[in-house]
Amino acid sequence: MKLRLSVAAVLAATTFLGVVGSAQAQTISTGHWDVGLEYDCATATFSELHAHNHDTGVEYELADATFAVSGTSNSIWEQQVFGGSALPVKVIGDGGTFRVGFAVEPIGTCSPPSVTFRSVGTPTVPSGLRAAAYRRAETDGSASPRTRIDTVTGSNRNLGIAVSDHEDLRWGFTGTGTYTLNLRAVRTSNNTVLDTQPLTFGVS
After folding, report:
1. pLDDT tens digits along 19-62
2. Are 197 and 49 in contact (CB under 8 A)?
3. Which of 5, 37, 56, 140 is the most exposed place for a label (fewest CB within 10 A)?
């Protein structure tokens, strides 16, 4: 189990140690990040949802993290997902120096059960705007991106995560502001709810 940093934990530590200052929520604007769960192979249990840096191993409580979006694109992928009238849109890529995907991380040696990540309930989105997660190309050879999470259609669009794996996605936003999804992780085989946490993007 890796050390996971949270605003609450930092506040508790600074209070105990008599350190002057306050903790701040974490704004993330670079790096390869996964939103996911750890699976303990020894106890066959999942952790809560969290933000995990794929390269450094740093982790944050998901409720404390905001992914900052400033890139812009009007590529063929955005045209197919959002339509030409919405372009250009703000994006986090599924490649390059900043990306946000989903993952199931085994602790120990095993193949974790498959987990499905989906947006549930009503997301908090700036009026008239939309966010969606998709890939530039599908592994089945399809040339068109397939939307996996969409603030318009909510839980009707799902992202299934392969066992013991991670998947990088492209995120698009049709305008500036704060977007918060109610992200839920369920066990794919029986739809058992594992955790639900806010997933927040700050778009400028």
Report:
1. 333 345 899 999 999 999 999 999 999 999 999 998 999 999 99
2. yes
3. 140
